Amino acid sequence: CSSGCLRTMQPDGIFDKAVCPNISKRGAEMKHYKTGGLALACVVSLCLAACGDGGSANKYTYEGVSLALPEGFTVDESSATPIAYGPNYPDNTDNITFSYSGADSIDNYSQEVFETYYSALLGEVTSNSFEKVKVGGKDAIEYNYSLSVNGVEMEQTQVMVFLSDKTVTVTFTNASGEYDSAFEQAIDSISAK
């Protein structure tokens, strides 16, 4: 995957496939890849995610990108796509997912590229914000959007950090609204080597 993947999740919380865009400067060319089981390399989890602040004791580092997890969150690293769940999982399935892909350039991305891709894949997606920022001196994108999956309204924030040898994506999916503040704090805590 060159720009992060989307995993579709059934209402019971089980992931069933991944769809990975290959987005180029010329627009939103997409290639779809299905993967089985837990062998997903990239993720934008579609049905549940959340995060919050936490002390250094709850810091998590993935492929050179670190953040403070909210209190009580734990990371499941049993698959290629680590997922952090809150203390009330599975009743509350908000989560944070971590993925990476090959080296890429921030210049290949715009709000329109994301909107075109996600709308083609998911149907109606409402962009709330798109910002090119710096994380630890590295180029990064913070994209927030709202969508509905299987009748569940949710908001996702995707942070893509462009390192010299890879692109790391951290995706926060918030369906409950319980972790709004915690998400903001976790996003603010993201750093890169």
What does this entry look like structurally?
The chain is 11% helix and 39% strand. With 193 residues, it is mostly beta strands. The strands form 3 sheets. Strands 5-6-7-11-10-9-8 form a 7-stranded antiparallel β-sheet, sandwiched between helices. The longest helix has 12 residues. The N terminus is likely disordered.
Helical proportion?
Answer: 10-25%
Q: If strands are numbered along the chain, what order do they take across the biggest sheet?
A: 5-6-7-11-10-9-8
Query: Which parts are unreliable, with pLDDT below 50 for 5 consecutive residues or more?
Result: 1-56
Report how far the terminal alpha carbons are from each other: 22 Å
Biggest β-sheet strands, sense, barrel: 7 strands, antiparallel
Radius of gyration: 15 Å
Salient structural properties:
single chain, 193 residues, mainly beta, 7-stranded antiparallel sheet, 3-stranded antiparallel sheet, 12 strands, disordered N terminus
Tell me the layout of helices and strands:
Elements: E1 6-9, E2 15-19, E3 59-62, E4 65-68, E5 74-76, E6 83-85, E7 95-102, H1 111-122, E8 125-135, E9 138-149, E10 152-162, E11 166-174, H2 180-189, E12 191-192
Antiparallel strand pairs: 1-2, 3-4, 4-12, 5-6, 6-7, 7-11, 8-9, 9-10, 10-11
Structure in a nutshell:
The protein has 193 residues and is mostly beta strands. The chain has helices spanning 111-122, 180-189; strands at 6-9, 15-19, 59-62, 65-68, 74-76, 83-85, 95-102, 125-135, 138-149, 152-162, 166-174, 191-192.
